[in-house]
Amino acid sequence: MTRIGIYGGTFSPPHNGHLLAAKAFMEQMWLDLLYVIPTAIPPHKEMEVEVSAADRLEMCRLAFGGMEGVYVSDMEIRRGGKSYTVDTLRELSGEDRRLFLLCGTDMMLTLDGWREPEEIFRLCYPIYIRRENDRFLDAMIIQKIALYQEKYGKVVRKLVTEPLELSSNDVRKKLVNGEDISNLVPPAVEKYIRDNHLYV
Question: Phi/psi class of residue 38: alpha, beta or left (left: φ > 0; alpha: ψ in -120 to 50)?
């Protein structure tokens, strides 16, 4: 049984928090392969800044390219339109594969509102990572995990990491303000952003 991780997102741009999450995901879930999949059009949020899918894909290749076992896929970009997780899971599923889906806290808390949640839980094991230190969310998380187990028969597991409170939005704001981002993104990603005048 091949253990495959799925890490989707807008990745606009990919940053060091994404890399830490990917490493923890691979190590703690004993993944054989991790698919990093930039969305075409995210169904759950509006794209604030117009950066092409091709640019986001290339930045992901630069960011994750050095990680063994990671494959940056353009499957959602090629599919076009809104990128629904259930479609990606169907495309990657197989009898000899066990799929694990990485979510941030916000996404994990709304999984039951995604397209075909029953099918998502049937096809994969959702895993979540905390990217914030908001203790007010603790009770809500416990409640949701219990609900998912009762409703869909799957336990949503947590990656054990120190929360890194960093978002792509933080990086974009610093770029707009002309601030340094060298400690927030991989060097190759920063060079690509500067060379192509992105987010300014």
Answer: beta
